[in-house]
Design a protein that fits this description.
Helix content: over 70%
Shape: globular
Largest sheet: none
Number of helices: 11
Distance between the termini: 67 Å
Strand content: under 5%
Length: 273
């Protein structure tokens, strides 16, 4: 029997086949969801995170800068389109277009790595975290858009509003990490996180929205937006309080109810978009 030695190049390829097993990425689908919610800014941030996982900080920095520039160009261009024309464009068309473009870009630059990572059964960041980042990006965009459209005639009112929303956004960022801790932290640790940080901050966010509603001379568009933000905050609080009960009782009997709440959260996010 003749044994043919395995070529060195093939052997090296086999050894490196799963060289991302200790890394964690955002999937193409997750980036697409975040992009649809929060625009190119969210995409730039998530692509940056994937580059950082690959230990390529320079490429990551460029991705974030491109995301910021693309966002400015996109929404600057929208403001330049006559209102009678933009009103005829269905609300979902532009998000679908730039989400499709971003999806193709991710496929080109990271498609092979992400597909191999998935085939090897390696870990990805949760879709909920990506959606949360998309929402944070959306909040930033809304602040920028409202500031551009209304800050000049309503300077003092918008300073108050921006100050409150900045706290809202900070609370949002700090609490969404809970989803990453669900499968890694102990029950006691999760309960402490919910009691001391997550639940109180969402109660604070509800009060923040109620406070901004009392600011005089805010445009009707912002007040209408606040209705959705308030509903969103109440759903987030409800979800985290239910998580607290489920973890405390060490049961999965609330899973269906939690899934329904998160579907309602998605609906509110769509309204914000």
């Amino acid at each position: 029997m003749i044994i043919i030695p395995l070529p060195a190049s093939t052997k090296k390829m086999t050894e490196q086949e799963n060289n991302t097993k200790d890394l964690k990425f955002y999937s193409q689908k997750a980036i697409g969801i975040a992009t649809f919610i929060g625009g190119p800014l969210a995409a730039g941030y998530l692509i940056r995170e994937n580059y950082l996982s690959l230990d390529k900080p320079d490429e990551g920095k460029k991705s974030l800068i491109i995301g910021i520039i693309a966002t400015i160009i996109l929404f600057g261009g929208i403001f330049m389109i006559p209102e009678n024309i933009i009103d005829k464009v269905p609300n979902q068309i532009l998000p679908l277009i730039y989400t499709g473009i971003i999806y193709l870009i991710v496929e080109k630059i990271h498609g092979t790595i992400l597909n191999q990572h998935k085939e090897n059964g390696n870990d990805f960041y949760s879709g909920w975290k990506a959606a949360g980042i998309g929402f944070i990006s959306l909040i930033i965009l809304l602040i920028g858009i409202f500031g551009y459209a209304y800050l000049s005639p309503y300077g003092e009112e918008f300073e108050k509003y921006d100050t409150e929303i900045a706290v809202f956004t900070k609370n949002e960022t700090e609490t969404l990490v809970f989803y990453d801790h669900i499968n890694t932290e102990t029950r006691n640790s999760l309960i402490q996180e919910l009691d001391k940080k997550t639940i109180p901050k969402w109660k604070e966010n509800i009060e923040i929205i109620k406070t901004t509603n009392e600011i005089e001379n805010l445009p009707s568009e912002i007040l209408e937006q606040n209705k959705t933000l308030l509903k969103y905050s109440e759903l987030r609080l409800k979800a985290f309080e239910l998580f607290r009960i489920a973890i405390s009782e060490d049961t999965e009997k609330y899973s269906q109810e939690l899934e329904q709440i998160h579907l309602e959260i998605d609906n509110e996010l769509k309204k914000l978009n």
